[in-house]
Amino acid sequence: MRFLYPHLLWLLLLLPLLAVLKGRAGAAPALIFSSTSVAASLAKAKRTRPAALIPALKLGALALLILAAARPQLGNTTTEIQASGIDIMLAVDVSGSMEAMDFTLDDQPANRLAVVKRVVDQFIDQRPNDRIGLIAFAGRPYLVCPLTLDHQWLRKRLDSLEIGMVEDGTAIGSAIGSGTNRLREQDSKSRIMILLTDGINNAGRIPPLVAAEAAETLDIKVYTIGAGSRGEAPIPVVDSFGRQRIRMARVDIDDKMLSEVAELTGARYFRATNSSSLARIYGEIDAMETTTRTIKKFENYRELFPYLVFCALMLLVIELGISRKKLP
Predict the structure, then answer these.
(1) Distance between CA 204 and CA 117 in Å, rounded?
(2) Residue-wise pLDDT tens digits, 4-18
(3) Which residues of 148-180 are buried (b: 16+ CB within 10 A; e: fewer)?
(4) φ, ψ at 188 (rounded to 5°)
(5) DSSP string covering 113-175, please?
(6) Predicted confidence band at 91 (pLDDT cuts at 50, 70, 90)?
(7) Cα–Cα distance for residue pair 93/196, rounded to 1 Å
(8) Which residues contact 24 (CB under 8 A, 6 or more apart)?
(9) Mean pLDDT in the chain?
(10) Alpha-carbon torsion, ordered 174, 177, 183, 185, to 10 deg
(11) pLDDT (tens digit per residue) in 21-57
(12) Is the pLDDT assigned to residue 202 strictly greater than 80?
């Protein structure tokens, strides 16, 4: 529901003030009696409950009329988005090494996957007119969300990513192959894949460069991102007593292979060693793959003010009926 003139709702704030002023309005009536016994008998008479409702009915009717003047409308907005012609498949590594705590999130140490989810969410927000899909991969690729313009649903699926949701390993070639397969049937003007990993291809049946060649043949660009610090990184482990500890472990990324994959498909390879550089990389890709945004918006709303006016009139009729009765 929406109000066509919402600024009129501020008038509702005047109602309590009117109620107070009405209660104070007018001087107390004074009558001269020859005997105070008559006044005393009048004082014993209590105000009836219907009579006490009269001010409330008036204020209620006035409130309804103010709401009616604000033009409440119930309905829905159908937004027809004219897609930009770019389809984007995101491939995110969810292998065990993504637990490394060498990134920060809100100035606190965080694992790589948590930071990637935050940055990718911001990237999605910048591409409202693009169809975007999501693949998670570790020992094998897993389609988390097909290409869609429903980015709210895509964000929910992104938030569901967890380390260990797929058997461990790093099947980069299979991830590229899966993404290519999802993009190949689309007739969009441009199709790209953004693959993020922090490891070396050690699983899957498709070598990364073979998958990249297939992508290049289908005119699909594959941007690659290597995420993680160089050398050693802190990784949480559970000791034999069930206690979680942090130990330093050597991490390695196949920069050469990832660079060759990107170059072969006409894209670029990026290396993110911290949270800020990862955000900057997605920003660069967003700038390189520009889009033209055209949105057609259709609105279908039903006016609710007649119902409010009717209710207000009913309150006034009731108030009038009570007022005409001889109430003490």
Answers:
(1) 24
(2) 888 888 888 888 888
(3) eeebeebbebbeebebeebeebbbbbbbbbbbb
(4) -75, 160
(5) HHHHHHHHHHHHHT-TTSEEEEEEESSSEEEEEEEES-HHHHHHHHHT--TTSS-SS--HHHH
(6) very high
(7) 6
(8) none
(9) 85
(10) -130
(11) 776 655 555 555 555 565 555 555 455 566 667 788 8
(12) yes
Block residue for tokens 């008038």: 11
Sequence-ordered alpha helix ranges (H) in 170-218: 172-183, 208-217
* pLDDT tens digits, one per residue of 306-315: 999 999 899 8
Contact between 251 and 224 (Cβ < 8 Å): no
Using alpha carbons only, give the angle 147, 165, 156 rounded to the nearest 5 degrees. Answer: 45
For 48, residues 6+ apart whose C-beta sits below 8 A from its C-beta are 327, 328
Taking a C-beta distance cutoff of 8 angstroms, is the pair 145, 134 a contact? Answer: yes
Structure tokens at 227: 């995420």
Task: Give the C-alpha separation, 158 to 151, whole Å.
Answer: 10
The pLDDT assigned to 74 comes to 84
Tokens, residue 298: 């259709």
CB 92 within 8 A of CB 176: no
